[in-house]
Amino acid sequence: MSRRPLMAGNWKMHKTIEEAVQLANALKEALAKLNDRDALVCPPFTSLSSVSEILKGSSVFLGAQNMNDNVQGAFTGEVSPVMLKDAGCSFVILGHSERRQYYSETSALVNQKCRLALAQGLTPIVCVGEKLDERESGKTFDVIKTQTKESLNNLSSEQLKSTVIAYEPVWAIGTGKTATPAQAQEVHSFVRQLINETYGESVAASVRILYGGSVKPDNIDSLMAQPDIDGGLVGGASLKAGDFVRLVNFQVPCNC
Known about the structure:
Elements: E1 6-10, H1 17-30, E2 38-42, H2 48-55, E3 60-64, H3 81-86, E4 91-94, H4 97-103, H5 107-119, E5 123-128, H6 132-136, H7 140-151, H8 157-161, E6 164-167, H9 181-199, H10 201-206, E7 209-211, H11 220-224, E8 231-234, H12 241-248
Parallel strand pairs: 1-2, 1-8, 2-3, 3-4, 4-5, 5-6, 6-7
Helix pairs in contact: 1-2, 5-7, 7-9
């Protein structure tokens, strides 16, 4: 089964509304004709509505960086999936390593958010990944297995098909370090096998798994050449139009 590549830009806590609009306009123009891959940008909450207006009718999707696990209520400072939909979002990043590390988000909470996002018509991008000490102590696959299973717990086959997974080795985020294509492929293959064991080959073959961790224009082609890497969850390189356009327009060498 052929999976449609997805390049997702996580702008994190960058860009004022004016700056976000400028970047969105540049991307809308540069990525006007996408027919075999998807592009997604995830600005801060404050810029979602403004960027949504820019991207309407374009080939670039809009997503959010997080959401609450409730539809509404007395949760000061939080944003609900209904609000995200209303702002024009179709995707939401859940369980990013920075959310897990700095705000103590657990896989159980990520699972609650994931199921609510799906119920509200949003496509969740569920993040998993190991820290440097976990990799060095040989615990990578144990960590990935636990996070993946707990974060996707009780999803139906159809729900999982509508979910994107992102493998982001924490030691490679914002550090300039990158997992080699072979290292990334090894974990992506492992995640796909985990899905296969529970949901079967057809579902496993349909789920998109992104790589996140210092993805840049100079390594995107080699990463995307790996059979189980279906795109990127991009941080810093998504903040400049030229860099992100290059990532979206990756080229895999032909082996024919």
